[in-house]
Amino acid sequence: MRIPFIAGNWKMYKTVHEAVEFVKELRPAVKDITDVEIVLAPAFTAVHALADAARNTKIGVAAQNLHWEREGAFTGEVSPAMVREAGAEYVIVGHSERRRLFGETDAIVNRKALAAIDARLTPIVCIGETLEEREREETFAVLDRQIKDGLDRLTAEQTAELVVAYEPVWAIGTGRTATAAQAGEAHAHIRKRLRQWFGGDAADHCHIIYGGSVKPDNIRDLIAEADVDGALVGGASLEVRSFTEIVTRSRAAV
Ligand code: 13P
């Protein structure tokens, strides 16, 4: 049984102070919700303070990135163990903004996912096609490549614990959500491939969440799809009220 997984990706928003204030407000709002996994992904600078503020609550913490090496001369980078020590349990890997703006390839995504697992972090691996790829009817081929190369060398047990985020690039920050049917179709395809390549247990256990203009008014339809197990929320996770609504409605739909 997969309980809904709702994560807020704050991207490059919120100072340490703003992050802590957010958690103080969110805590009472979600204190009785035990049947949704709630995760917040602040900027690196706020991971430690946010993890402190979320201690003894059900709110989990994710970093938005990491480097794959354990340590070394990599100015500006943060290692998996550093992320873990700062209090994160999850880490977003391969977000389309990192692929597009910072040159992350599937091979890099793979190294990061493996390094995260090695440091006892759960990777939230993002995949998804661009608008041009969708229009050329390459969506499934793109997803296949991103899964095959991005999850290369993961064991079935590791894949079972993974979170895969399907984020069609054309739906991110555009207000243009994939329809529930489009999301459902892509998620079913991803689950089918996970079953084929990693086995039934991995496919059944792995959370596949949707990202791209998720709002309180569309979460119900999205999560009603059999293979949509939650959401990775950008803009609507920046306000306590809309984030809480998304958490609450994800639960009512199950
Ligand atoms: P928006 O919800 O702002 O479209 O962002 C989605 C996203 O990129 C989450 O990782």
Structural class of the helices, strands and pairings? alpha/beta
Summed over residues and divided by their number, the pLDDT gives a mean of: 96
Number of helical regions: 12
The share of residues in extended strands comes to 5-15%
Bound molecules: 1,3-dihydroxyacetonephosphate
Please count the beta strands (DSSP E, at least 2 residues each). Answer: 8
How many angstroms separate the termini? 11 Å
Low-confidence stretches: none
How is the biggest beta sheet arranged?
8 strands, parallel, barrel
Helix fraction, binned, reads 40-55%
CATH topology group: TIM Barrel
Please identify which CATH superfamily we are dealing with: Aldolase class I
Radius of gyration from the alpha-carbon trace, in angstroms: 17 Å
What is the approximate shape?
A: globular
Overview of the molecule:
By secondary structure, the chain is of the alpha/beta class. Helix content is 46%, strand content 15%. It has helices at residues 16-30, 44-53, 80-85, 96-102, 106-118, 131-135, 139-150, 156-161, 180-198, 200-205, 219-223, 240-252; strands at residues 5-9, 37-41, 59-63, 90-93, 122-127, 163-166, 207-211, 230-233. Strands 1-2-3-4-5-6-7-8 form an eight-stranded parallel barrel, surrounded by five helices. 45% of the residues are buried. The site of 1,3-dihydroxyacetonephosphate (13P) has 14 residues, from strand 8.
